[in-house]
Amino acid sequence: MNVSNQKFQFASVLFACWFASYLERFLINLALPYIGAEFKIDESGLGLLLSVFFVGYAVIQIPGGWVADKIGTRKTILFAVFMFAIFTAASGLAWSLVALFVIRFLFGIFEGSFPSAAYKAVAEGYAKHERARVQSFMLATNPLSLVVAPLIAVPLIAHTGWRGMFICSSVFGVLAFLLYFFGTRQSHPAPSNVSTASGHHEPPLPFRELIKDSNIWKISVINFGVNILIWGFLSWLPSYMLKVQKLDLAHVGIVSALPGVAGVVGMLSGGWLADKLFAGREKYLLFLSVTLAGLSLFVMLSAPTLPVVVACQLILSFSMKISFIALWAFPLKLIEAKDMGMASGIVNLGSQLAGVASPAVMGFLIVARHGSYDGAFAFLAACTVICAVVTLTLPGKRVTSAHNTGKAELATEKQ
After folding, report:
1. Contacts 24+ apart (CB under 8 A), 79-83
2. Is the CB of residue 261 less than 8 Å from the CB of residue 150?
3. How many domains does the chain have?
4. Range 105-109, long-range pairs (CB < 8 A, 24+ positions)
5. Alpha-carbon distance 12 to 142, whole Å?
6. Nearest alpha-carbon partner for 317 in 370, 379, 269
7. What is the pLDDT of residue 197?
8. pTM above the 0.85 mark?
């Protein structure tokens, strides 16, 4: 098999794993009203249920990156995909509210082991000038799964209940595991600690060296803000359309899927823009897309009709996904492949802390305002301002990774 075919095959099976990961994560958003009715909990309790998944996800980010650096990406990915498929099914078997909280926490632990290994695998398998486009292809599974999730969840909930929906949907994780297991035996990238001129293998930089890089932490903070917006919007959109816009379940499924279509376009566009038009100027792409997201939220808060609300949601989803891939263009282009597991774990920690905070904070704001979603969406809009401000502190010129001193140091090149 030639190199281009190997790259394509590997990208395809990794795409399947990302798709299963996002799909099985999104399903609970459509089940929330039914879980709330069965266990008799309000939006604040449901927000905590959403957040506990991200507590587990956040806890494992740095350890998961360390494991990927130590034992390799293939083993880490296979273990993570198999286990999150198991815990998707387990979500439908919860015998009490406490059990459901514990299951969702463990689900977060196992699913959270996947991204750092996947980012590292992309860094191992592709040159730096290819990585943003490849990663945008992978992360297009995020909005794509937003399109597909309602199409799967709504009929399954209608026919089998929310519990049956989780059990049946776990098959996607099982299929992804099998595809990755059989599909990467020949095409998986080689380990990234490549031989140097002296014939030795370079070990990954230790954590204490990576955390000295202020730019890694800036990217993590921006990732936190962007994902406050992403997870807050995605978590509460179905409930908002059901309770505020007064749509029935079938129409909620359709309308909730539309931002996913815009998101796919945004994610793929973002990868091309980051590698081509904004190459070396990724911070400006990030700033513009975050600003557009904030403006669309502001308009949505005062939108008088449903078509305007939906239009704002499409613009918001499009700009969010461009923001996300523009943000990840930084570590993908700055960090050496051998260090990508731990470094991406640090960066991804920001997004998972956002997943913890955003659904819970929005749930409490909705309850505090007696069912109004205005305060919750205003909270999201405020976070876009923070993202935009921190983005302006990032290097404005093309950035490269400089490890000649043995430290994770980011340097700028003159243009």
Report:
1. 79/113, 80/110, 80/111, 80/113, 80/114, 80/117, 81/17, 81/20, 81/21, 81/114, 81/173, 81/176, 81/177, 81/180, 82/173, 82/174, 82/177, 83/110, 83/111, 83/113
2. no
3. 1
4. 105/52, 105/53, 105/55, 105/56, 106/56, 107/53, 107/56, 108/52, 108/53, 108/54, 108/55, 108/56, 108/57, 108/58, 108/59, 108/60, 108/352, 109/56, 109/57, 109/59, 109/60
5. 15
6. 269
7. 43
8. no
| Block residue for tokens 């089940």 | 31
**Is 194 a member of any domain?**
no
Is residue 201 one of the residues assigned to a domain?
A: no
Give every CB contact of residue 44 below 8 A, 6+ residues apart in sequence.
Answer: 360, 363, 364, 366, 367
Angstrom distances, CA of residue 40 to CA of 46, 52, 212, 270, 343: 10, 18, 47, 42, 41
Count how many residues are written for the chain. Answer: 415
CATH number for the domain spanning 397: value is 1.20.1250.20
Q: Which residues contact 112 (CB under 8 A, 6 or more apart)?
A: 56, 57, 58, 59, 60, 61, 64, 352
In a domain, 388, yes or no: yes
Rounded Cα gap, residues 373 and 14, in angstroms: 37
**Are β-strands 399-402 and 409-412 bridged in parallel, bridged antiparallel, or unpaired?**
antiparallel
The confidence score (pLDDT) of residue 60 equals 87
Chunked into runs of 10 residues, the chain (415 residues) has average pLDDT values of 72 89 86 88 83 84 81 89 93 91 93 85 77 76 79 88 92 93 75 46 68 78 83 73 71 70 80 78 86 84 76 85 79 68 73 75 85 83 85 64 38 36
d(CA 33, CA 354): 22
Alpha carbon distance 104, 47 (integer Å): 13
Q: In the beta sheet, which residues pair with residue 195?
A: 201
Identity at 208, one-letter amino acid code: R
Tokens of 224: 């936190």
Tell me, yes or no, whether 74 lies in a domain: yes
Domain of 390 in residue numbering reads as: 3-185+208-403
Query: Which of 233, 231, 290 shows the shortest CA–CA distance to 256?
Result: 233
State the virtual CA torsion across 66, 70, 71, 76 in degrees, nearest 10.
Answer: 20
The type of residue at 152 is: I
Query: Assign residue 280 a region: left if phi > 0, alpha if psi is -120 to 50, beta otherwise?
Result: left
Residue in 143, 85, 151 with CA at minimum distance from that of residue 114: 85
